[in-house]
Structure prediction request, 252 residues.
Amino acid sequence: MTVSPGGTPPRFRRILLKLSGEALLGDRSYGVDPKVCASIASQIARVHATGVQVGVVVGGGNIFRGMAASASGMDRATGDYIGMLATVMNGLALQDATERAGIPTRVMSAIAMNEIAEPYIRRRAVRHLEKGRLTIFVAGTGNPYFTTDTAAALRAVEIGAEVLLKATKVDGVYDADPMKDPAARRYDRLAYADLLRDQLKVMDAAAVALCMENDLPIVVFDLNQADNIARVALGEPVGTLIAAEVSGGTQR
Prediction:
């Protein structure tokens, strides 16, 4: 493993980055902004250059949301399958951007579509990572009623990732919505149990429980701040760390 341009060795050997579909929107109301994809790819490239093995799970909310369609009368399972297909489109767009950034990339799908993506096989995914290939996991878990947050937690555990990075539009976990409450306080560190108890809307309960059972730390951070992905990989105190034990659950 190499070191960063500043000479600091990465803290983590293998990471799983969870991107929402909305992260790819940019200023658009729908679809994918190629400039945003290029920016994310550039951040990932800087991490990849240090020797960190990177897996990515991408959502599909910029194209279709199964739960929203279900609320409008569509069968929930059908809506979720459509949402899974949306994640495949996002994964292919991100693959194009990362390969343009010089990163060898593989897209692995939980739903078979051999013409455009490899089937997800855990051992093959780990081998791709070991060979220095960015691996993008799409189509969620392949099952309806599970979110891409749960898919991210599952894939992170399966590939032996040392941390799950949850990219958001805010700089961590707050005790209230910072967009609505200017007095909201941000947590520096938070325990899994506190996250579940207080029903803080960061990840769904199934994803958090899976991370808790497997002692997989989660870092919630702001994707819009340049180099935050690299900073987290280097172990810098960015965003909110969610883990088994915290010293006082500090806020600021």
In short: The longest strand covers residues 14-19. Residues 11 and 235 are 5 Å apart (CA to CA). The chain has a mean pLDDT of 90.
